[in-house]
Design brief:
Length: about 300
């Protein structure tokens, strides 16, 4: 009897071992979305005190729209709808082609709840939106303040992987990242290779959760999908608490689409105001958006012309 049981167990284990495993996505248990607070603030306007407005202030501050000076920093901790908040909200509405009212209306809330990159939007376009000589129109791409870029002798960039949380296997992630880098290599002077030694890498890619030591904590399942630093820092972090996939649907986020976007930041591009551009800050759940647009191409070539 013992022999027969052992034979059955061995057969089961063998089948388990040889059964191919396809890690296409990571499905998370349902969790509270960090953007839900916005729904309780609809209709808020200047002069009101509404519970949760301090969270709206943190949102607009994180993405570059609100900056209280030292004398008014205590206002960041209140639920008062003050003049600075109204001004920040109007700037946000203008940037996202919404009706500029300064009121937190349903269209603005809907826009804010779309998943997005954690990098701030570039608000001052005065030096980062050159005119096209052909059409005499203003470009939508932007650069980081000061226009940081990789040195002219640094065109072959090496990357490696280092995560604080295991989310996707390297076997799955490697070809995704390779394809994302290639899209930028095809339109620029850059080439990209995985480093044979991690300490040689110019770029480090990984998954992290909540506060992960870079002063830009993630928000758990919610608005922020990832962030990356400008040249020559080289850090690119995915939010490990999002629902990632290489073939997204429903509430999943596309690994490759986000990688193409964040690599743009690694090379020095800020957010574009063209909704079709890879460098546009937002990407709705379930969306695949992997191809560079002319705005993205013009931006990287202008930065490294």
């Amino acid at each position: 009897m013992a022999l027969k049981l052992s034979h059955v167990l061995a057969t089961f284990l063998l089948l388990f071992v040889i059964q191919p495993f396809e890690a296409q996505s990571r499905t998370l248990k349902p969790a509270a979305d960090s953007s839900n607070f916005l729904q309780n603030l609809e209709g808020s306007y200047k002069g009101q005190t509404v519970k949760g407005l301090r969270q709206l202030k943190r949102y607009l501050n994180a993405f570059g729209y609100l900056n209280y000076n030292n004398d008014a920093k205590d206002n960041m901790l209140t639920d008062n709808f003050d003049e600075l908040l109204e001004s920040a909200l109007k700037t946000y509405q203008k940037n996202y082609n919404l009706k500029v009212t300064g009121i937190l209306d349903s269209d603005t809330i809907k826009e804010m709840m779309i998943k997005r990159c954690g990098n701030p939007d570039i608000i001052d376009h005065s030096t980062s939106k050159p005119k096209s000589s052909k059409f005499h129109t203003v470009a939508d791409y932007t650069f980081f303040p000061g226009m940081p870029r990789w040195p002219s002798d640094k065109t072959n960039l090496l990357y490696t992987f280092r995560s604080g949380v295991e989310v996707v296997s390297l076997e799955e992630l490697r070809p995704i990242i390779q394809r994302a880098f290639q899209r930028w290599a095809d339109v620029s002077q850059f080439t990209f290779q995985e480093a044979t030694e991690a300490n040689q890498a110019n770029i480090v890619i990984g998954f992290y959760s909540k506060d992960h030591g870079d002063n830009y904590p993630f928000d758990g399942p919610g608005m922020v999908l990832a962030h990356a630093f400008s040249p020559t820092d080289g850090r690119f972090h995915y939010d490990a608490d999002e629902n990632w996939s290489s073939n997204p649907s429903g509430n999943q986020a596309d690994l490759e689409s986000v990688a193409v976007h964040e690599i743009g930041h690694l090379l020095g591009l800020g957010h574009s105001m063209d909704p079709n551009a890879i460098m546009f800050a937002e990407i709705p759940a379930g969306t695949v958006k992997r191809d560079l647009t002319q705005d993205d191409i013009d931006g990287i070539r202008a930065l490294y012309s």
